[in-house]
Amino acid sequence: MTRRVRIGLAGLGRMGRIHAASLSARCPSAALACVFDADEGAARRVGEQFGVPTAPSQEDMLADDAIDAVAIATPTGTHAELIIRASRAGKHVFCEKPVSLDRQATLDAIEAVRTAGVTFQVGFHRRFDPDWAAAADRIRAGELGEVYLFRTSLRDMTPPDPAFLAGAGGFFVDVTIHDLDTARWMVGEIVAVTAHGAALSDPGFADIGDIDTAVVVLRFASGALGVIDDSRAAGYGYECSTEVMGRDATVRIDHPQYRNYEWRTPGSASHGLPRDFEERFPEAYVAELESFARCVRDGEPPRVTAHDALAAFDLARAAEESWRRGRTVMVEPQRAGADVIYTVKQESR
Amino acid sequence: MTRRVRIGLAGLGRMGRIHAASLSARCPSAALACVFDADEGAARRVGEQFGVPTAPSQEDMLADDAIDAVAIATPTGTHAELIIRASRAGKHVFCEKPVSLDRQATLDAIEAVRTAGVTFQVGFHRRFDPDWAAAADRIRAGELGEVYLFRTSLRDMTPPDPAFLAGAGGFFVDVTIHDLDTARWMVGEIVAVTAHGAALSDPGFADIGDIDTAVVVLRFASGALGVIDDSRAAGYGYECSTEVMGRDATVRIDHPQYRNYEWRTPGSASHGLPRDFEERFPEAYVAELESFARCVRDGEPPRVTAHDALAAFDLARAAEESWRRGRTVMVEPQRAGADVIYTVKQESR
Amino acid sequence: MTRRVRIGLAGLGRMGRIHAASLSARCPSAALACVFDADEGAARRVGEQFGVPTAPSQEDMLADDAIDAVAIATPTGTHAELIIRASRAGKHVFCEKPVSLDRQATLDAIEAVRTAGVTFQVGFHRRFDPDWAAAADRIRAGELGEVYLFRTSLRDMTPPDPAFLAGAGGFFVDVTIHDLDTARWMVGEIVAVTAHGAALSDPGFADIGDIDTAVVVLRFASGALGVIDDSRAAGYGYECSTEVMGRDATVRIDHPQYRNYEWRTPGSASHGLPRDFEERFPEAYVAELESFARCVRDGEPPRVTAHDALAAFDLARAAEESWRRGRTVMVEPQRAGADVIYTVKQESR
Amino acid sequence: MTRRVRIGLAGLGRMGRIHAASLSARCPSAALACVFDADEGAARRVGEQFGVPTAPSQEDMLADDAIDAVAIATPTGTHAELIIRASRAGKHVFCEKPVSLDRQATLDAIEAVRTAGVTFQVGFHRRFDPDWAAAADRIRAGELGEVYLFRTSLRDMTPPDPAFLAGAGGFFVDVTIHDLDTARWMVGEIVAVTAHGAALSDPGFADIGDIDTAVVVLRFASGALGVIDDSRAAGYGYECSTEVMGRDATVRIDHPQYRNYEWRTPGSASHGLPRDFEERFPEAYVAELESFARCVRDGEPPRVTAHDALAAFDLARAAEESWRRGRTVMVEPQRAGADVIYTVKQESR
Q1: How distant, in Å, are the alpha carbons of A19, D77, D81, D198 from that of D167?
Q2: Contact (CB<8Å) A268/C266
């Protein structure tokens, strides 16, 4: 009953190390079984830190019968293949977003997990944060009434380095994808995406054809409007805030203090702001893995499905197309059993 | 030196009565000289309340040598003509926005005040609120650095009644015009406007071809992005909030409490929210009239010019066109002496 | 009906000038008729600033039939005599607290206003602040239920200069008197006072036998406890906060921001704090004079009576005795018609 | 290096179950080895929930060589003896406060852990909360300057049941002891304690000679003043807040929201308040055990010593005496090596 799901962790960059800490000592239903990274030294250091063995190779990890599931935090380009191999090895899979920058590879990965019948969850951690979860529950319970407006901001304090950006799939797929998932989850399906972008903080963004600031306007199937503003260079800190305005109530998840104390000096009171996603979401990263482990253990469907990942990816690509072509992209969410699949409508306007 | 500018007030609807209270007892440099309203009974009641005479007609008010200036809060359709007549009578003019729903009438009014050489100010009160004014000053002083993102919300608690809406000029000219003025004032000139609208709270909006919710995306000449979300049906109260994110700092003017006390009951703490613009801007409506009176008295140029009013109007019309045609409208701000005049560019995309 | 009560203002120090501004342009029911100060130059400057005549002497002011009332903001030592002379001249009187540092002089002043039948109000401005007033109304309406705990803080940013301190009557009579009035007003009568004091910021306080920091514990007749912490050297700004905890609800009037905007820099968000009572109470100082003028005009009893002033003074003296003798001072509030008079009980413990 | 300290947990009431959850899955340096409770059924349920064995008896737990340390959350009356037996068995000890209601028993327990040379830590969790810890660090670093005033509140939403109260040692030893520890830790040693109490929410408190509300005034050796207000019946929720006002800065740890979202309905915005210590201190209860485990593992002295526990207990008893006798109790903190021991001074006043 209280068995812990044994999880092998592949990829020990920043997110990987956060997951290592969560799996090692914060998820009651999970245990960190072993770690792997292409950089052997890094793997050894993390393994020692958390007191777990290092897998000599991904193959070894996947062949290990003592491992129930793998958590994938490797570079994006390697996700799809690793998902497929892990599924075939009968391992349940938790994977960082996005599944792939290539749509077909994403579909192949989804098909692989479906065929294998394993549990598959993508790292849309915001769904597991207690504030967003409580707000979504209350919206779902009808406490907000009909939704009129959805608004969300996602902002990094400082841009990642160019090497990362090159492989990140562009602003919308790397950043806005989280907001698009939140929009669908909290409000419902989307029928139109209009995106605006700018490269303001550093000419390097324009040089690689990318942006650091975006505003994306959504129209939901219900008629409600949505607006996302995202930035890679907010300067003051990391921000993730959401507001949903409805007929009967409005919920606002605002920027929290980092540490709940106020420091007062002559004429001024100040409080700390979170500087990165790790400080902003101390519970969500733990909760998403704990939820995954429970679903694996109890044979329940995950709270974020493979098709949710696909939908957010397709919407991010629609946003990118909108930005590049300077016009609204109309999309069509279509039910396919329990899932929803988005297609781009031809040239509506 | 401490002479009070004597002001005749025409129009005693909601805004008119706010102005009556301000001029009567809150503006050190102004004095309420007389009031006028087409509804004689209303005029008499307000006159008695504030202890000032009622003008028998607008003509009488304009002919009265003891009156230095007129404040116009009549229905929009009457603004332009009254501005022109007042100017010709040598009266300085304060007028509620918009000057007119007709562009040519707006130009005629501007020309009239120019010819007469009187002081003319339009009621963009937000420029006079101490929070916005402080933020704008710090931006202007360079404390924010280059601006990356401008974001503002303007929301009414409940829609006005249909009779008002019919003459209000549509959502963008009636509501968003304030945000467009704020955007220009705080960040600078605008080169593209993309507007989205929806009628969600009441089918009556769609019936008259209007909307109750809008999202407007701006691109500034500097390259910065801006986003405005406005609503006539926020439900929880009136909101006017602004954020400007820059390279070196970010300023956020958020929703204040209405009354600074918190009421705690089991498991919950609540505070009051402003229900309307009068509760939200207790100082700004006074400050704009006091500023106007000082400019009249001291012969200084007003802080909002006639051309500022025209620019906001033109941008609101561009937003409306964008919404109706479903595409971005490119605009061109052109210097004309000290002023800026906007023109719509043909079919950029 | 809208007649303005014409008020002569005596004393043009800091509070006097605040009152001049309020009477001149912020109180609809009052008009500043003339000003007087022992320093002729100061009087002339303030008179010119507000466009009112300077009274050559207090006698002239009191003899002027065009003056309905006087507002007294002169040094404390002159209050009582001026109250008595003004009352005898048939003028209504508004006076800064305390009435006097001498109890008998206070009683004489109270007797003079009673005999003359004029309206008399003391400057406990907190009772007129919209937040405290709303909280007190809700307590009175029973929304809080039985009160368990009252807590209030009053803190100055920096100590006044020694010259002022010498004539201010000591910490409890000068500072804590406000809190003692608030305690009685919000919760009810008091039966025990225990005071603790310290001179921490400057040895000068100890040199004159005074303190800069105090904690005063109250026991109310209802059995509830109260606690006051006051300081002359809070450093970060001026603070006046109050909490009343009851069976059914708790109300907290906390420290507001000064200006409602937040300024964000890397990792930190800051907002302004009020630096003095003028920034903290933008409405209360106006409201107390407006209320006084209305009471004069309408012949209604003032919201703070002469006996309220006496009670707060007697409680402040009890606090001082408690601090000096190092023990609790038991007091007895006794009804005398509509009034309550406090006496110190002999040596309870 | 990453060895986990194996801890047996005795006592599975509310705090015991919180500790079970922390040790089981949230402390990287600790492992829950087994549980014990006098109620066998309760022990079995908790053991199953966390997947650990149940110790048949305390003796068995203490005799188990696989156990490095015991965490004691049994009823207060059993603490001292269990500490002594555990120490003699060579086990390190973490114990809930207070060590005992009997001073000699407390001394005996302290002597036992000293003799055995084991690590001993008492559950003053507030020292481990990240906000208090950060504030204390900044005070210690001199950022606040000389301290003028310390203020803290500790309030329960609803009183515990009478059965608990009977064995809890009275209000000051059960509740205020936490604040007294915080006062010493953040500001320094204390020289005078004056306590006031009242039984307001329920006559049952008076019936057992206890109180539900207290105000305690402290004088520190530095001359600074301190004030504590505590309640068992705050109604709105659990509160633990602290402010330290200093010459150069003031730090305020205020009441946080419970969940960082705001719910807006017409004219009102509300947020959740923590209802109990578990919701208020999600990190502190974990951090204190993690810190204990690290100290055990690394052979370092604990951050709260046995003598800290004794000092807080002695100060709580002084508060009780002050309340019962209605006068200030002077105390004398005396250095004994690295420790401080408090004695009550005879009849100072």
Answers
A1: 44, 8, 16, 19
A2: no
Q: Which residue of B has its CA nearest to C280?
A: B260
Closest among B52, B99, B93 to B75, alpha carbons compared: B99
Residue A75 to residues A17, A84, A97, A126, A288: CA-CA distances in angstroms?
Answer: 14, 15, 10, 21, 20
pLDDT at D1 over 50: no
Confidence grade of residue B2 (pLDDT, cut at 50, 70, 90): low
Q: Map tokens 């203002």 to a residue.
A: C9
Question: Smallest CA–CA separation between D78 and chain C, in Å?
Answer: 34
Chain B contact probe: residue of C261, C270, C271, C283 with most B CBs at under 10 A: C261
Cα–Cα distance measured from residue D217 to residue D181, given in angstroms and rounded to the nearest whole number: 14
* Cross-chain Cβ contact B260/C248 below 8 Å: no
Which one of D21, D24, D28 has the shortest CB-CB distance to A24? D28
Position D283 pLDDT exceeds 90: yes
pLDDT band (50, 70, 90) for residue A161: confident
State percent of chain A over pLDDT 90: 94
- Per CB-CB distance under 8 Å, the chain D contacts of A263 are 138, 249-251
For residue D247, CA distances in Å to C83, C168, D137, D228 come to: 40, 23, 16, 20
Beta-carbon separation of C148 and D200 below 8 A: yes
pLDDT 10s digits, C277-318 = 999 999 999 999 999 999 999 999 999 999 999 999 999 999
In chain D, % of residues over pLDDT 70: 98
Confidence category of residue A347, pLDDT binned at 50, 70, 90? low
Contact between chains at A227 and B227 (C-beta distance less than 8 A): yes
Give the closest residue to C279 by CA, choosing from B140, B128, B130: B130
Min Cα separation C11/chain B (Å): 21
Amino acid in position C102: D
D267 contact residues in B (CB cutoff 8 A):
236-237, 258, 272-273, 275
Yes or no: say if C1 and C64 are a contact pair by the CB < 8 Å rule.
no
| Average pLDDT along chain C | 96
CB atoms within 10 A of CB D12: 23
**What is the pTM assigned to this prediction?**
0.96
Measured between beta carbons, the chain A residues lying within 8 angstroms of D294 are none
**pLDDT at site C1:** 43
Distance CA A195, CA D263 (A): 29
- Give the mutation candidate from C138, C147, C149, C325 for the D interface (greatest D CB count, under 10 A): C149
* Neighbouring residues of B89: CB distance < 8 A, sequence distance ≥ 6: B62, B63
Asked whether B187 and B332 are in contact (CB, 8 A), the reply is no
pLDDT at D44 over 50: yes
pLDDT at C349 over 60: no
Closest CB from B255, B267, B272 relative to D268: B272
Asked whether A258 and A157 are in contact (CB, 8 A), the reply is no
Q: Indicate the SS3 state at residue B214.
A: strand
> Predicted ipTM?
0.95
Checking if the pLDDT of D97 tops 80, the result is yes
Distances (CA, A) of B185 to A280, B188, B224, B334: 33, 6, 14, 16
Structure tokens at C123: 């400057």
Test A263 with D251 for CB contact under 8 angstroms.
Answer: yes
Of D264, D266, D273, the CB nearest to B268: D273
Specify burial of residue D57 (Cβ count, 10 A radius: 0-12, 13-18, 19+): exposed
> Rounded to an integer, what distance in angstroms lies between the CA atom of residue B73 and that of residue B87?
16
Nearest CA distance, A189 vs chain B (angstrom): 16
Residue A55's pLDDT band, with cuts at 50, 70 and 90, is very high
Neighbours of chain C (3+ CB pairs under 8 A): A, B, D
